[in-house]
Amino acid sequence: MWSASVFTLYPDMFPGPLGQSMSGTALGNGLWSLEAIDIRDHGLGRHRAVDDTPAGGGPGMVLRADVLANSLDARLAADDPRPRLLLSPRGETLTQKLARRWADGPGIVLVCGRFEGVDERVIEGRGLTEISIGDYILSGGEIAALTLLDACVRLLPGVMGKLESGEDESFENGLLEYPHYTRPREWEGRSIPDVLLSGDHAKIAKWRRAQAEDLTRARRPDLWAARETE
Ligand code: SAH
């Protein structure tokens, strides 16, 4: 079974929203598994301290290398094949391609940072790969971890209602998705484009493709350029 182990100071944040809807049903049906491990179980002293002041000075606190490493070592077998990912604004940005790669594997190990971040030595010493969910700063890695998990879990076999609904989506083919419509046929003076009501599936596919291309060119020149060079 595809399994996720999340190291966090806030285990109660999991499964959180992933316990609802498609991913929640799939979790209940054993299509994937999730364990949230409290890093503080390996905290030091009476107060179970996990952080300390930054070497060299400056604001905030840093998650200690020894505490995090002890937590990882206690819960992960040396031959655990899953990629070990640290949520971090410095990392490679999460993409659909990465989500699909991880979904196709045995699962993932996620480490959620807090405070100013994590002691650099544990990133090196435990081979953590930094992954960002975008160019902005969150207060902790938990919501980023939930985002990354959601992107992976919905791709697991049996999780999504229809297999197709994975393949037509934005980014899967390097394009943004075409616009959607449903009933009613007329709404506030706006109609569904005629072609979608024509029943001509080849024509519909062609129209959708053209819409997707126009949208991508207009909104995401970076994606459009990347396609042309592929
Ligand atoms: N001082 C750091 C930010 C720390 S934010 C810096 O300037 O880069 C605290 C934690 O939140 C991080 O350790 C990380 O785990 C998480 N986090 C914040 N923003 C994130 C993002 N965009 N993607 C993934 N994780 C993020």
UniProtKB/TrEMBL annotation:
<comment type="function">
    <text>Specifically methylates guanosine-37 in various tRNAs.</text>
</comment>
<dbReference type="GO" id="GO:0005829">
    <property type="term" value="C:cytosol"/>
</dbReference>
<dbReference type="InterPro" id="IPR023148">
    <property type="entry name" value="tRNA_m1G_MeTrfase_C_sf"/>
</dbReference>
<keyword id="KW-0808">Transferase</keyword>
<keyword id="KW-0963">Cytoplasm</keyword>
<keyword id="KW-0949">S-adenosyl-L-methionine</keyword>
<dbReference type="InterPro" id="IPR016009">
    <property type="entry name" value="tRNA_MeTrfase_TRMD/TRM10"/>
</dbReference>
<comment type="similarity">
    <text>Belongs to the RNA methyltransferase TrmD family.</text>
</comment>
<keyword id="KW-0819">tRNA processing</keyword>
<dbReference type="Pfam" id="PF01746">
    <property type="entry name" value="tRNA_m1G_MT"/>
</dbReference>
<dbReference type="InterPro" id="IPR029028">
    <property type="entry name" value="Alpha/beta_knot_MTases"/>
</dbReference>
<dbReference type="GO" id="GO:0052906">
    <property type="term" value="F:tRNA (guanine(37)-N1)-methyltransferase activity"/>
</dbReference>
<keyword id="KW-0489">Methyltransferase</keyword>
<dbReference type="GO" id="GO:0002939">
    <property type="term" value="P:tRNA N1-guanine methylation"/>
</dbReference>
<feature type="domain" description="tRNA methyltransferase TRMD/TRM10-type">
    <location>
        <begin position="5"/>
        <end position="225"/>
    </location>
</feature>
<dbReference type="InterPro" id="IPR029026">
    <property type="entry name" value="tRNA_m1G_MTases_N"/>
</dbReference>
<comment type="subunit">
    <text>Homodimer.</text>
</comment>
<dbReference type="InterPro" id="IPR002649">
    <property type="entry name" value="tRNA_m1G_MeTrfase_TrmD"/>
</dbReference>
<feature type="binding site">
    <location>
        <position position="113"/>
    </location>
    <ligand>
        <name>S-adenosyl-L-methionine</name>
    </ligand>
</feature>
<protein>
    <recommendedName>
        <fullName>tRNA (guanine-N(1)-)-methyltransferase</fullName>
        <ecNumber>2.1.1.228</ecNumber>
    </recommendedName>
</protein>
<feature type="binding site">
    <location>
        <begin position="133"/>
        <end position="138"/>
    </location>
    <ligand>
        <name>S-adenosyl-L-methionine</name>
    </ligand>
</feature>
